[in-house]
């Protein structure tokens, strides 16, 4: 007896919710990939174009220059022949010298001073004063120093540059648990810089938020600055 096989093919439409989820998932993956590429682009080393003294002036102010990024930044500016005003990260000292800074002919300011202490903790575990100090240094000091030098830059009519040191904690990832306050203050620095750049671009004042990493070049510059200060 012959066997018969009956094949029945049914065209089943793809559910709308599956298409929606696939679209949302693909969009999110694309968004994360673009942010990662943007962060990697920011990490690429760039050499300054032209003569900094001729473009911005003879003076540069660097806050937080005693170690790390600030020291390497100050050393690099010195290599370009700029006169430096080095400012400690204590907010009280920043307020005391704000009048002096405003009276100088500086046209480059590097706001590097910042604190990350108490580090990775739950918000309720740290003392309130620790959070207040972080806000004073990471937010208030950046704002006060920038506000102190902008009137002089505008009055001289030669433009200028304000470089604020940000963090990948606020730019490359959507959230950073246990570093909530630190990443929030650095997010302020990023938005502060972007808005000021648009606000003062017509006056020739460039405002940037830089995210720096410990590349080989940075480590070498930092070691050289350590030797120049400590003789080791």
From TrEMBL:
Keyword Methyltransferase found: no
Protein's name in the database: Very-long-chain 3-oxoacyl-CoA reductase
InterPro entries found in the cross-reference section: NAD(P)-bd_dom_sf, Sc_DH/Rdtase_CS, SDR_fam, VLCFA-Steroid_DH
An annotated GO cellular component: endoplasmic reticulum
Chief localization: endoplasmic reticulum
Cell compartments where the protein resides: Endoplasmic reticulum
Organism ancestry: Eukaryota, Viridiplantae, Streptophyta, Embryophyta, Tracheophyta
Annotated organism of origin: Oryza glaberrima (African rice)
Similarity field: Belongs to the short-chain dehydrogenases/reductases (SDR) family.
PROSITE patterns: ADH_SHORT (PS00061)
Superkingdom per UniProt: Eukaryota
GO MF annotation, one: ketoreductase activity
Record has Transmembrane as a keyword: yes
Membrane-spanning ranges: 16-44
Keywords: Membrane, Oxidoreductase, Transmembrane, Transmembrane helix
């Amino acid at each position: 007896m012959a066997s018969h096989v009956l094949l029945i093919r049914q065209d089943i439409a793809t559910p709308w919710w599956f298409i929606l989820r696939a679209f949302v998932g693909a969009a999110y993956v694309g968004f994360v990939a673009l942010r990662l590429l943007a962060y990697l682009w920011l990490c690429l080393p760039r050499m300054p174009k032209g003569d900094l003294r001729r473009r911005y002036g003879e003076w540069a102010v660097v806050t937080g220059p005693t170690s790390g990024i600030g020291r390497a930044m100050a050393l690099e500016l010195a290599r370009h022949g700029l006169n430096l005003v080095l400012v400690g990260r204590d907010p009280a000292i920043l307020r005391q010298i704000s009048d002096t800074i405003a009276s100088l002919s500086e046209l480059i300011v590097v706001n590097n001073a910042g604190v990350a202490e108490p580090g990775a903790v739950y918000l309720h575990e740290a003392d309130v004063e620790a959070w207040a100090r972080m806000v004073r240094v990471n937010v208030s000091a950046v704002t006060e120093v920038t506000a102190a030098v902008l009137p002089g830059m505008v009055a001289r009519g030669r433009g200028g540059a304000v470089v604020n040191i940000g963090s990948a904690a606020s730019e490359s990832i959507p959230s950073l648990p246990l570093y909530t306050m630190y990443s929030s203050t650095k997010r302020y620095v990023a938005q502060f810089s972007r808005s000021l750049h648009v606000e003062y671009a017509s006056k020739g004042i460039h405002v940037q938020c830089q995210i720096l990493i410990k590349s080989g070049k940075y480590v070498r510059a930092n070691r050289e600055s350590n030797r120049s200060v400590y003789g080791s």
